[in-house]
Write a structure and sequence with these properties.
Four copies of one chain form a homotetramer. Chain A is an alpha/beta fold. Chain A is built from twelve helices and eight strands.
């Protein structure tokens, strides 16, 4: 079943596990999928930036997609961002045939004007085909492409196959409110809005009306709980849990290979990954950074026992 | 008399002459103004990038403006691009009181979305005051801000005091045609369009309907002639003259301090400037570059005797 | 007494108070200076980005500097970042004559190569004069200029008047460790390193060996305490206090005019500023954002009574 | 035989011919290869930006490479620039097995510091394998990555498989002189330097010591002649020919899809391509632009009969 604008909840951005020698670790991949299912997420996104997609060739990428899609009944979204529409189309068609629910597309950082951005997504939507639902990724910090709410509305309106926004603008709270306002005033059809950016503002984003989270935080359980507690109107409880995680979350959310190194380290510590190896170019945690992470986890574990990891 | 959208012809961007020790050379400044008047230009732009405006402090900048405005009856446009609206307002008010015809404003390179660019010019127009006519500078290559024709129309429409476009987009021919089309279809009021970019496409830009040139080419006589010949429908003659200049023009139009060094060198060779000194940070011509410029001038002089310079 | 590399502790980045009609509010300015002195900071930085320096003209900027310098015996650092070296020199000389302790310089976002960045600071140091101590601002997120530790070492080595680094790279912990390592291995003379970036990583930055904080957090008391507790080896207490502030701190640290709006709002709530007005272009807090800030302050006040503000 | 630093002469950047319906036009592809051979070029570069590489998927790209390599005995260089090293490696290995002479790599526009650029090329060279000769593309205008001569020397020194520089910096003449100086003073091994940038400065670049041209100008005969005439010391003849082409060359060298549209149009007019179709996203020549090109060709044909095209 293809992705629709009804998707909500938590859709983790999955890292890709490697053996220390660089081969894809399929056992860990399976374990991660099972783990995500077990904690009650609502879907999975693979082959995003966090998944080191650029370090997999086409065959490897499609192999990962096939394995994940084959193992779970959750909807799987596949990152198909590519330098050209031909490669994007090719990957999108391949993974949709395997049973992916939809694809995610980020804009190239060379786009400047509103017209250029809108044209890009029209061309992308045409390239992958109108039957392939796609997620619009709005992440100016990483992609250097700024989209106003009005531009997002335009993209959504021009492309019926755009069903979800991965919102990770920063600051971004008013943007969410504006977009939800467009829906209420009838100027934009409803789309799903799930937030990224490591979840750094999930506590308030959830209150502003987003449908969930689509990010790579190493404790997706917290994302699930915060989204649920907010939906249930239990504001203080949501913030209490979120705030307990925030010192570590902030540390994890450092941009680039360091943030990935932290996440993989914690996945290893949690027994999900056998190794925290990255493919090259990679960045490893220094001993001091490792100590800092352990310190943060120990402090978190005082409040959230799920962070209590065996020595 | 303030600048209006009726301005047309050639408005050179003036460099600022310095003594070798860095002091402003007022004698050369006067000589340049007289020289420009003598070759039949229609105005002057001072304190632009080419005028090394950033290397003058406020007192020096206003002194240059006062001297130029006091010496010529041509309309003088003053560059007031500044990092903040307070400094922009301050300089704009000062030079308008001295008798400047208008000011020129370039967008800061941090602007991205159409809305940001439009807001910037609304704020700038408000800061300098609605009585101060301004020139909108559209130079993506240098300023990294891309403006579509529709965005320019929006800026023109939102700001009655915007009377002229300094067009230096590249490629830019279709942009001119589109803007002139907006005027014809009544969706934009008429503004003056003068071209910059060293004049690299003046031959065709003039045919596309611009009103003239607003650039720092070291032989403004050529710009004057090409604009006139095109207006008179003498296409082949216009191109013959332009093409003769093109090898040197292209050399001069190299971006940054090198292009300025070439122009100052030629101004010195033509007897307009006593020295080709730049203020620091500066770039001088190497002996090989000097030889190349001399070679190009000698070749040009075969066709255009105005390039025949005394050894 | 001029700034030296011995500066340490907390040096707040001061906002500039305005009346609702846009005039500078000198009473609030005085009150802020007194307040900073009262909480035990070690210096003040004025006319930075947070101080809306671009919205003050030269006369206003120097008037603010004169008033602040005249009122406090703390060392005052003045932001002199400017589009050209002439304006930078002019402002630097003016404020040093008034008794400023030093100046702060950020690189223009057009710089790319290591050589360009190094040349820029050589030229800047020469422009302001070798007797004027300066703070090197390393803030890639805002200025788009990336400096490796080796490049910072080069700038420090080439410019004896560079006495302090305002470190706000992100991620930045390993950078601090590398720079301190350069000092230990003798390849770089010791400089002061104070951190910015809203203090988002101050807890660990303090442990990594920085000398303090140079940022605009609205509760500088917390910065003072965390720096002190860390220096005293009371790690858990430092983190307990920091973590209590983090949910609000993260909210305040949103980039651009929003972050400034939050800080000014809290300064008003704390009775330091009479108004939270910004000069245009400005951004005000929406009612929902105001509610979010109040909610965060109320939660913070449960742990830190200094955040308990009168209704 | 693999590419070495002995390559010199003219190596055109080849466009890719399409049928109007978007299919690759293999007949035109063959005709182009034969045409290039016939005019005496020294190699071919395919799947570069000009070749619309991003609009071909992996299978199409390798099919084009196979066909071109199979048809010519000239060395064929293949663009393998990719968002990740896995795809780069995969394409590089594939085309080298087919008999390509080497590959061309451009840096991603996210790189900033010298260290980042150097690390990128070390990683790229390792990814494709030390046995694959590569061309370093230095094109700041398009790729936004600035490399000083010292950085290029570092890349050349760190990567024995880097055998050629595609030089298209602008301004760039002094850079060539500096690099050749490095070779003479023994601080850099000799590499081939071929120039791009549409050939806009080939006349002087050839005099500065480059080995030839590696660009997509629609009359490669001119490039061949200018390189040869300069090598033979016939300076005035070289410039006479170059200057005759310059008005059209400048028009063709407009950045982006417009420049490609002009080249394809002229290839069609010359009978090399059956169609000037681009794959989407594309830009077609307007009637006015077509008239301008025809006018320029007619003027050029007065001097160079090779530009005399059948009506």
């Amino acid at each position: 079943m293809p992705l629709t604008s009804d998707i909500r909840g938590v859709v983790p951005i999955a890292p890709t596990p490697f053996h220390p020698d660089g081969r894809i670790d399929e056992t860990s991949l399976d374990r991660m999928v099972d783990y995500f299912e077990g904690v009650g997420v609502d879907g999975l996104t693979i082959l995003g930036q966090l998944g080191e997609a650029g370090k997999l060739d086409h065959a490897e990428g499609t192999a990962v997609a096939r394995r994940v899609i084959g193992r779970t009944r959750l909807p799987v979204i596949v990152g198909v961002t590519a330098p050209g529409f031909a490669a994007m189309r090719s990957l999108a068609r391949d993974v949709m045939e395997m049973g992916a629910a939809g694809v995610m597309i980020a804009p190239p950082n060379t786009l400047r004007t509103d017209d250029q951005v809108a044209a890009y997504f029209r061309n992308a939507a045409e390239a992958i085909g109108p039957d392939v639902p796609f997620v619009l990724q709005d992440y100016p910090l990483t992609f250097s492409v700024a989209m106003t709410p009005a531009l997002i509305r335009r993209i959504v309106t021009e492309n019926p196959s755009c069903v979800m926004l991965k919102h990770e603008d920063w600051p971004g709270l008013e943007k969410i409110t504006t977009l939800r306002g467009y829906e209420r005033d009838g100027s934009m059809r409803r789309i799903a809005i799930l937030v990224g950016n490591g979840g750094l503002f999930l506590d308030f984003e959830a209150e502003r009306g987003v449908d969930g989270a689509n990010t790579g935080y190493a404790f997706p359980e917290m994302l699930v709980d915060v989204v649920r507690l907010t939906r249930e109107g239990r504001r203080d409880e949501a913030h209490d849990l979120f705030d307990a995680h925030l010192p570590y979350l902030r540390y994890e959310q450092q941009q680039g290979p360091l943030g990935l190194a932290v996440r993989k380290y914690v996945f290893k510590r949690r027994g999900i990954f056998a190794s925290d190896a990255q493919r090259k170019p990679s960045q490893n945690l220094t001993p001091q950074a490792t100590e800092e992470v352990e310190y943060l986890l120990a402090r978190l574990a005082r409040t959230d026992p799920r962070a209590r990891l065996p020595g």
